[in-house]
Protein 1
Amino acid sequence: MNNIHVIGLGLLGGSFALALKKEKPSLNFTGFDASERNLKDALTLGIIDQSSEVIPAETDVVILATPVDTLESLLLSALDQIQENTLVIDFGSTKEALCKAVADHPKRTQYLAGHPIAGTEYSGPKAAKPDLLEKKVFIICEMEKTDVHLKGMAYDILESLNMKLRFMDPEEHDRQLAFVSHLSHISSFMLGKTVLDKMEDDKNIFDMAGSGFASTVRLAKSSPAMWAPIMEANQGNILDALDAYISNLSKFREKIAEEDKSGLKEEMASINKIGDILDLGR
Ligand SMILES: NC(=O)c1ccc[n+]([C@@H]2O[C@H](COP(=O)([O-])OP(=O)(O)OC[C@H]3O[C@@H](n4cnc5c(N)ncnc54)[C@H](O)[C@@H]3O)[C@@H](O)[C@H]2O)c1
Ligand SMILES: O=C(O)C(=O)C[C@]1(C(=O)O)C=C[C@@H](O)C=C1
């Protein structure tokens, strides 16, 4: 393996390239970004060695790290262009529609559907960090549909970055991510909105905001260009997650309104175990 081509040189594409460069300094990185500014920054920051709008013929691995509403056309066009020993991996946050779109492509075996469970609220090449993916989970969907040798090359790369591989089907992936990722972003955005609305009456309200507010509202700084397409791609599962969340919020509101102190304590105590569950997985 000598040549990697990255399309989308933002937080994820950039962090991947920086990490792999550190691990395998002899690799050559080419890449492209639709934003001229981001492409320039990626070159300046050493994320890629050369820019190229087409996928160079000698490329071993193509990484697609653009918003999910751009992935289908980029993936189909990449598969149409590549040689028979080239692998395409995408990093998209939703998987069901993309796996369906590529199901009958004659080069389906040259695609690996991936999702790194790592990120921050920041975007673009300047936010990229070489340690972002370190020890994080990398979900692979429909692994049985990828050519065994190409899959081996992908596992070598991901293991060299110390990523933990997990396998699931794309429908299950999108159902579960709606709850553990997409809902937390919506919840953070709406908390941010609720307090921003309140600022209309109470101009200095943010002077009172401590670290509790900062940590729960962190995700409200996330990129609309990345998140609006995720909400479109995973609409049904996100609506299910939101219905469950709104129902829980309403029941909790009721307990507060009814001054049901013991009910509130019981409810919160039963939710405290989330700390142990999360710590166990780390
Ligand atoms: N940010 C996260 O926490 C996170 C985590 C895991 C997966 N992902 C997924 O990874 C992908 C990239 O996310 P990111 O956080 O790196 O976003 P980002 O905004 O930091 O980077 C995306 C880059 O893609 C470029 N781009 C957009 N459309 C393009 C196109 N048609 N052709 C070429 N370049 C294009 C943008 O200019 C930008 O530089 C998304 O699919 C996202 O769902 C994000
Ligand atoms: O930690 C963050 O800031 C993230 O938003 C990362 C996060 C997540 O929800 O956990 C965001 C989207 C992804 O597809 C995967 C990871």
Protein 2
Amino acid sequence: MNVHYITASSFKALFFIYTGSLPPDERSVSEGGSPIGVILMSLTKEYTDNKKTAVKDLSLTFYKGQITALLGVNGAGKTTIISMLTGLYPPSSGTIIINGRDIHTDLAAIRMEMGVCPQYDVLFDTLTVREHLLFYGSVKAPLWTKKQLHQALEDVDLSHHQFKHVGALSGGMKRRLSIAISFIGNSKTVVLDEPTSGVDPCSRRRIWDILLKYRADCTLIFTTHHLDEAEVLSDRIAILQQGQLRCCGPPSYLKETYGQGYSLTLIKKSLTCEINVVILLSYITSNAGMTWSI
Ligand SMILES: Nc1ncnc2c1ncn2[C@@H]1O[C@H](COP(=O)(O)OP(=O)(O)OP(=O)(O)O)[C@@H](O)[C@H]1O
């Protein structure tokens, strides 16, 4: 099956032929015609040692030029999906198509165009920031120029630290270096497993800026536990629970469809106090209303 240049709408038709029904994410959202980058097709992963089914019959589409967040609690199966996407673990059944190539038959070619930022940094304490980029660059993109190296350092705001040993960097700096490595050689598909884990709010913001900057040229997939992060960064959010897709769509769509709003519980001292609170809340947001009062 060749799905190299098909659009979201043509994929719908294609998928219909194969399964007889639309995948859950396609049912819930209409796309703006972005080309498809990655397709998970009925993907299942069962770990043989503990017989745990970490991902169950998951069908999901990721688009080029978009950021998609895989959002879920611990154990939802996010890292397992990333591991299958990068070819670390083979699926138990189902397959993944990346830029028209099947992971079962074209893994080497897929890896040439893929960048990965693992959950835990794979860095060497005794090498400098610059040496890391040169090392990974020589493996991934031998024709990488000095200009591109400097651009990468600048993009992740590490130019001033390029001659420092990684052992002397903060957690946030290490994370930014790992992200820079994942984008070496203009990777067409980039997967990032919790790119902001363990970083302070300032570094988190910087990482968001980096991802938004690189979004245009690739299919970008990242995992997170944080709804706020998924909302700020993503074009689409896929919510996972126990290895299954619960819903998927643009943040605004999910909010509109599933959002319940917020509830505020107050202990009042007097009736006048209650009236003042209602006035104050309706001043802050016209949607606020009192559900009950005792
Ligand atoms: N190598 C493994 N062998 C056996 N079971 C595993 C393995 N890796 C993960 N699991 C199990 O698969 C399930 C999904 O784990 P996974 O790490 O994919 O979830 P996650 O959403 O990434 O969690 P977290 O947010 O904690 O990283 C869990 O129940 C986990 O215990």
Protein 3
Amino acid sequence: MTAILQAHALGKRYGQRQALTDCTLELPPGHVIGLVGPNGAGKTTLLQIACGMLAPTTGQIEVLGERPDGATSQLARVGYVAQDTPTYANLSVADHLTLGAKMNPGWDAKLAQARIEQLGLNPKQKAGKLSGGQRAQLALTLAVAKRPELLILDEPVASLDPLARRDFLRHLMESVAEHDTSVILSSHLISDLERVCDYLVVLVSSRVQLAGEVDDLLAQHHRIVCTRRREADLPAGLQLVSAEHTDRQSTFVVRTPSPLPADDWTAEHLELEDLVLTYLERGLDHGAPATTRPRGEAR
Ligand SMILES: Nc1ncnc2c1ncn2[C@@H]1O[C@H](COP(=O)(O)OP(=O)(O)OP(=O)(O)O)[C@@H](O)[C@H]1O
């Protein structure tokens, strides 16, 4: 299957500020991909490059098999909802649908109409008079009705109350299931990502720290608690993600694609939130992805 997004050594610099560093990713189709990272991590930068709104400084990227260059044919295949869910304040809801129909060759007028009715939006209402949640829903409707192959959503639920957020995500999931769309969704809200995402990318300090299918990542990561020991004394082949020590006890988070070897420790799998927080912390502390200690090498 062709990747929906393939990036190699992608970088973006704004003057002195490095916003994205050495980003190599291959995102498979058919997933809802959660992009998570702290403020300023580079999420918006990556998503804008993917939409062809920004040019990278270094590296290459392909989205749906093409270089994103803002060409109309590609814009029709990618739906983008920016962080501030932009709409035209002076245009009515109906005007937005008319505009969507004019600008998008694959526009699904029936779908757009049905969603507006389902949401209870008044077609005559000016977008400037809608609530933040309603504006986000309108922006999502415009993006979904393009019938894109890929939907890119940059923190679309950030300003919504919990109920509006739940509705937004429910509508998103419905339309994804119905139309077989791939989605990249950035959010700070891990509980939301947990609800809708089956693939995860963690970006910290401009670098990708972790990427993979959520089920695989959860299966491969373990929290180990044992009497105090050095990292170097862990069995070889385990990828050390984090280590904490008290006088008597050590707690490690490790990753291994194989079953965890039996040892004198207690081990448990991590919840998604713990996994994300571990990599966020690690990224802020070290600025580099975790590495595996090869057999025989002491740290
Ligand atoms: N137009 C710009 N000019 C200069 N620096 C910028 C510009 N846009 C972003 N940056 C910087 O690039 C870095 C990455 O920003 P980006 O908006 O991609 O992060 P983000 O992960 O989306 O953050 P947030 O979660 O706060 O939205 C930040 O340090 C930011 O200050």
Protein 4
Amino acid sequence: MGGAEPEKAAPRRFPAVLRKRAASFGYAFRGVGAALRTEVHLWFHAAATVVVIGLGLYCGLERWEWAAVALSVGAVWCAELVNTAVEAVVNLVSPDYHPLAGRAKDVAAGAVLVMALAALAVGLLVFGPRLWAWAVDA
Ligand SMILES: Nc1ncnc2c1ncn2[C@@H]1O[C@H](COP(=O)(O)OP(=O)(O)OP(=O)(O)O)[C@@H](O)[C@H]1O
């Protein structure tokens, strides 16, 4: 009766923020999983990634070489995932033929091509001399 209301405890925002971040990670992993399920050529990238890591371990790469290889592999995956996302959005908004839809898909595919060529250059620079030396010695 007229007494002061007991103060409500302030909402504990920090754990909520953490939960939201964790959920975002979950969505991101779900996205990678969905892309892997729907895009067959990502399996080629997965196989290539395993081969490159195996070759790197076998060759005993230097630390900086691992950095270059990791960045290249990650960048190609990143370009492929963005390309997959662009394709999905284009298919959603323009299921019928439209020159702009085609251009968007072509440009996204071009981004993958550019990154794949750059990764190939890194691969040749890092592994090329070793493979050449083995071929000559054999
Ligand atoms: N809605 C569209 N309008 C115009 N051109 C399109 C459209 N959809 C696709 N294209 C053209 O066809 C090409 C291939 O499209 P598609 O959706 O089959 O891509 P993709 O790279 O073969 O993808 P994936 O094989 O991964 O499904 C595009 O790069 C684009 O030139």
